[in-house]
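Q&A log
Question type: sequence-to-structure
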Amino acid sequence: MFPELKDKIVLVIGSSQGIGKAVVETFLDNQAKVIAADIAYDFIELHAVSPKYFQTHLDISQEAEVLALSQQLINTNLVPDIVVDVAGISTMDFLVESKTSDFDKTYQVNTRGAYLAAKYFTNAMIAHGKKGRLIMIASQAGKNGYRGMAAYVASKHAVLGLVKTLAIETAANQILVNAVCPGIIETEMKQRERVEGGALRGLSAEEIRQEDISQVPLGRTGTPQDVANVVLFLASPLASYMTGQALNVTGGMTMH
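Response status: OK
Response body:
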């Protein structure tokens, strides 16, 4: 628990399931004021679930929606102290057989979405004098290559480039920008990837799962909470001298 996070305003983008849901719950446990934004929510205006928990619709790939949410947060005195961008999608296919439309769709959410979130919410922080934190959920796919995932791999490499650049540009404003690079995390998206990736390779989803486990030195795949714990660390006073970093949460699978 970090008492310093009490009543801090935390915007979590991509929050309805998996890692995003765990991040929301972790900040609520630390008594922060959390705004959960996700394409799955119907509320265009902020919907108060409780005095410290709000939900709102957001398609992170749409600039008009990101701008509108940024303005809404300014108008309601809810400019975030911490922004966590978890939103991401993946497609499965070998590069030479893949659809250009799938590549474009993945980039729209994973990379363009990260760019838009960084641009508008960081601008709001700067305009209101907030010495904030921006935390991007990238992936170990931002450091390695993986068969059947060219669009996802490329998009997450690009996210790390955005993080490194923005960290330099906002250092004078004392806004810290970092990334978390999860490995194999047990989420709905990972379960779908095993089915689709297995079909590409002639393997069952269970065979892919066993292969996943075999690649992790710690002998298990990760949980959304494993990732949320590192997000919490980056948002806490313990990480006050860190910016431009990409922290692995991979059980030792990726070590660079």
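Response note: The mean pLDDT is 97.
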